[in-house]
Amino acid sequence: MDNLLHSFSLAVRNIKRTPLPYLLTILILSLGLGMFFSNATLYYWLNHDPLPHKSHSLFHPQINAVLQPCDSCTEPTRVLSYQDVKKLSSSGIPSAQAAMFQSAGYARLPGKTDQSPTPVSLRVTQRDFFTLFDVPFLHGQRWADNTARRELILSKASAERFFGRSNVVGETLQLGNELFTISGVLQNWDMLPRLYDVANGLSSAQSADIYLPWETAYDLGIKSNTTTMSRDSRDYSDNFAVNGREGDFYQAQFWVQLDSPKQVAAYQQFMQQLVQSEKEAGRHPRPEANRLTNILDITEHFNARNRQLDAFALVSLLFLLVCLFNASHLSLNRYLASQYEFGLRRALGCSRGQLQQLILADVAVSACLALALSLAVAAAAMTLIASLLPATRNLTSWNPVMVVTMAGTALVACYLVTLYPALRASFGGLNRQLK
Amino acid sequence: MITLTNLSKIFRTELIETHALRDINLQVNEGEFAALTGPSGSGKSTLLNILGTLENFDSGDYQLDGKSVKGLSDAAVSRLRNEKIGFIFQSFNLIKDFSIYDNIELPLRYRGLKASARKQRIEQALELVGLHARRDYLPGQLSGGQQQRVAIARAIAGEPRILLADEPTGNLDSLMARQVMELLEQINQRGCTILMVTHDPEQARRAGRHIQIIDGQLHDSTLYQPLATQIVRPQAVAQGA
């Protein structure tokens, strides 16, 4: 312990002895690491598995069920119609299934006419949404069934924003011109990446403020504010409760949970049979193109990778390599300048191993400084990237595992930078510097 | 204590091979105070470095306390150097931003001594060299003679069996040089074997033994005789024969 403390005090003394070369080395390292960390953070959030314990069982079914004939249309549409959802929901095979789309509206407390309504993001969905994606409840519970009901589920932040507290189950909130009872409040929850909404290019968006029952949204004429498509001549601004349900209007995503390969095979067979019967009924004029895509493949499936971020990640990696090379060069000069002292220590009985311990302490101090500075650089860089690419705004947090990984990376980078200089110094001739 | 048998050292570059030491045979007994003399470039410092295990040799054998140092691992050689050998350099080689105390402490740390044991040895060494009151000074605050006494304190704090001194008075004036020599004699009287490289005939005379190297060869290794009878160049030997 005494020797360890001595090694660290020597490391600090080394900084005081040659502050400028030392700080320059740390600065270069921090710039490289900071840029790398910022891009690695975005890359991590966009590519990690948000539900590792069940992602293998979550699937996105699609059928090519647009009613307009088109022989060359061999890819199904990104979104489904109400009728498609209804048919795909009828198998009885999945252990959970939910249709959904994103929308927006204005909400306020009832009776507070003096207050201007607050814009809110909505997720129109069915009760199994909360099961499919393990959404945790803070108060209350999900809807009892999928029937139309004037019940909302709020995010914790929304509950606190409107009511100043989180336990607001049973309270009333006005959404648009309608009054709703609050049946549940979610814990702080953000699924990153938001893979259930990749079809809309919203994989990095924040979770919704308010969750609204699927059937209720159709009753009230609430439509998706992202992807909608209609292929007939109906007026969907009028009587949406009927037209939206019966017409050729596409806006829904649909997710199912299939827990075993057997269930997956059964559901694929169900989709085939469904399409076959639809064709026989003349409701599936396009080529059969059934898709059952796992949630981890959904980004590639919709070709929704953020190529700009990939390019940033590559550039930051190259920048890190350049910084490491330069820092190593500076470090070599610093260590060569210390070679006299290394030689003296060796002459006094310090073994190469003991010298390496001293150097490791030096590396550890460098790593701490480089880590602190590189995190600051990374935070600044992420702010900059978020301003350039607003879609990444929600991907800039660090969890403890990431911080530990970054600390480890900083340590390895500092050691790599000092490895060659340290070896040169510790294997140098003992007698050359001493007279 | 020290036995060199047919020891040779060659420095090689791409173009030239320089025989720094040729077939050196030498026996140094415990408690001796030997002066190593010879012209510049004769191999004195190389021999001292090999004796101090700071440099490897190419052929022959070097036995310290009856054990060959050849083929020892770096850790073993470092331990041996730390426990049995003390160095005194011409340029003192003190670390400038370490206090006197910290400089003397260095070799003791590498031995793994506890703080209390280190402190006891450092204080004893400082008492011996008469610098106890200046333990917290930096080397730059001391005179050359005092710095060399610190270097001697550092060398003897570990209670080595051998003290290797490379022109220890080379950078000192005559008064300080005399003080350092007196200190070395005092240390030798306590039983420590000393090998000292020197150009000063007076200092060589004060040593109990005079070893002479010319052109990498040991030409005499006897107990002290008047210098005039000792310096014999190879050519002169050949002519005389």
Gist of the model:
The complex is a heterodimer of chains A (435) and B (241). Chain A is α+β, with helices and mostly antiparallel strands. Chain A contains 13 helices and twelve strands.
Key descriptive features of the protein:
heterodimer; A: 435 residues; alpha+beta; six-stranded mixed β-barrel; B: 241 residues; alpha/beta; four-stranded antiparallel sheet; 10 strands; disordered C terminus
Rg calc of chain A: 30 Å
Proportion of strand residues of chain B: 25-35%
- Outline the biggest β-sheet of chain A: 6 strands, mixed, barrel
- Basic shape of chain B: globular
- Count of discrete alpha- or pi-helical segments spanning 4 or more residues of chain B: 8
Largest sheet of chain B: 6 strands, mixed
Specify the structural class of chain A: alpha+beta
Please, how many helices of chain A? 13
Strand tally of chain A is: 12
State the helical fraction of chain B: 25-40%
Total beta strands of chain B: 10
**Rg of Cα set of chain B:** 18 Å
Seen as an oligomer or otherwise, the chain set is: heterodimer
Architecture overview:
The complex is a heterodimer of chains A (435) and B (241). Chain A has 435 residues and is of the alpha+beta class. Chain A is 47% helix and 16% strand. Chain A is built from 13 helices and twelve strands. Chain A has a six-stranded mixed β-barrel with strand order 3-4-9-6-8-7. Chain A is elongated, with a radius of gyration of 30 Å. The model of chain A has no long low-confidence stretch (mean pLDDT 88). Chain B contains eight helices and ten strands. In chain B, β9 and β10 (217-223) form a beta hairpin. A six-stranded mixed β-sheet of chain B has the order 6-7-8-3-9-10, with helices on both faces. Chain B has a four-stranded antiparallel β-sheet with strand order 2-1-4-5, covered by helices on one side. In chain B, α3 (100-110) packs parallel to α5 (144-157), α4 crosses α5 (144-157) and α5 packs parallel to α6 (174-189). Helices cover 37% and strands 26% of the residues of chain B. Chain B is an alpha/beta fold and 241 residues long. Chains A and B meet through α1, α11 and α12 of A and α2 and α3 of B.
